[in-house]
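for the writeup, i need someone to sanity check this before i put it in the appendix. the sequnce is what the collaborator sent (i think, or maybe the updated version? ugh). structure was predicted straight from it, no edits. if anything looks off just tell me and ill rerun, i have time this weekend
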Amino acid sequence: MTATDWHSKVSKPSYEMKVQRGVQITARDGTRLACDVYLPDAAGRFPALLSYSHYGKDLQRFTGKRSPLNPLIGNGGQEAGDSEYFVSRGYAHVIADARGSGDSEGEYCYQGPKEQQDGYDIIEWMAAQPWCDGNCGMFGMSYFAVMQYMVAAQQPPHLKAIVPYEALTDRYRQSVYHGGILNEGFWHQWWGHVSVDGMRPLSYDTLSEEEIARRVALLMDSPEVRHSPYLHIQLKYPRKNPLLFDWLLQPFDGPFYWERSPYRMFDRIKIPTFLATRWTSWAVHLAGAFEAYARIDAPKKLLIMETESRLGPLRPWADHQDLILRWYDHWLKGKDTGFMDEPPIRLLIKGKNEYRDEFEWPLARTRWTKMFLGPNAMLSASQPRQEGTASFSNDPDLPPNQHAPGVSFTSAPFYTATEVTGPVALYLNASLDQPDATWIVTVRDVAPDGTSHTVTKGWLRASQRELDAEKSRPYQPYQKHERRETLEPGRSYAYAIEIRETSNVFLPGHRIALDVKGQDTTAEDPIWVHTCNAIATGHTVQFGGKFDSYLLLPVIPD
């Protein structure tokens, strides 16, 4: 079926739009939730889509002007989607404020159980309205998309399908602590862009005040906090940035993160699910799309694409509305759009910049290929016979916009175009001169003229290297993140580092480069910056001989 064929089968713009603002919905516990309702200006009943978040319904009005994500102007939360696009095609669109946010009553609980239950109540309220035909879906990206999973897990009877577009599924690993390293940069700026007027930190619901005081005292004496006035302030004044306060007090995976992680609920999601994200969403949503596709047992589709800006979709968000319309026309209107007749997975193959359909992930024809770290900063297909090392020390006081210290290993130029599509892993042997360290790993595509671009990234706190043997795969190590191991300075340890999924064709003459560092370079990515070692730490990477250090790549044959 060609693109023209399916576009001719979906709903056409036929309606003007009217708006009901400040509508009140009463949740099961009596809390009143505020929403705006966008409707076709015509008699009749229509399928209804819910966009549900804490960013504030008033900020979601589509202005027609779109621009890149910009934390300085706070447009990141404009993610509810284009109301006029869907309303004109015969859908109702409800944009609701989560409890404790925007114009809704109650105490904000950051995607906690009450917010999830409220989503059920909103869906069922929508289905009972005179403008709704009883068929409901959900809409929106990022926070809006994560809520789709968690509302679907509540199984409201009238929720018939969802589209989690750019949605993480593991709150600890994919958002707050990458490889056990606090994703501090994002949480620096994020809280200032939400429509929540103050919040009691969630840790007070699960920890005693004595335990909180104990943890705060330990953190205040840690090198990271002593080095950072910003972190000191967050701990001293918990309401200033309440979620960052919670993250600091909760450094390991566990129930606190589980109740806000959709992967813990996949077994309860039984409705059709259309997953979409971009390859460059290493730090937040990419891994979640693949995890959800693997584990949700329902009709499903997966789209992995790229966006114009490396920071994600332009805001207000309106990407792929035609595909989402095609999906909901099928599941909510019963139209034969042909969507479910096509292969379940569509991938943008970067380098070729072409889309390709697939039937499984990882791809069954993958040739898992080891590229060994070796002398002269080389990556090669052969394990070096002689042992060698490469060393560096991180710089806790690195000036802004300067590249972080590290070591790089680079392959010989490729003779033919070589496709790498799938999960990536780094197996590394190393010693440290401190009891802990932070590893920041980047894979790059280096062109013949020396310019390069990032292909994918990975992270690991050295003391949290313990693997979950049941969940780990050779191509995808999975750490437990339940405790910290005290490492013996000078002793060699083996690290298995998960590197996010990717797709990239290395063209003839291009090389693959692996960068191993102990901290982020803020000039490369000012948002996704981590709390790395606050004291200078010597890192010695070991390779060759008994040290089996290699990059495991998913090479796809022609």
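The chain has three domains: 3-62+74-171+261-342, 173-249, 367-556. Residues 3-62+74-171+261-342 form a domain with the Rossmann fold fold (CATH 3.40.50.1820).
thx in advance!!
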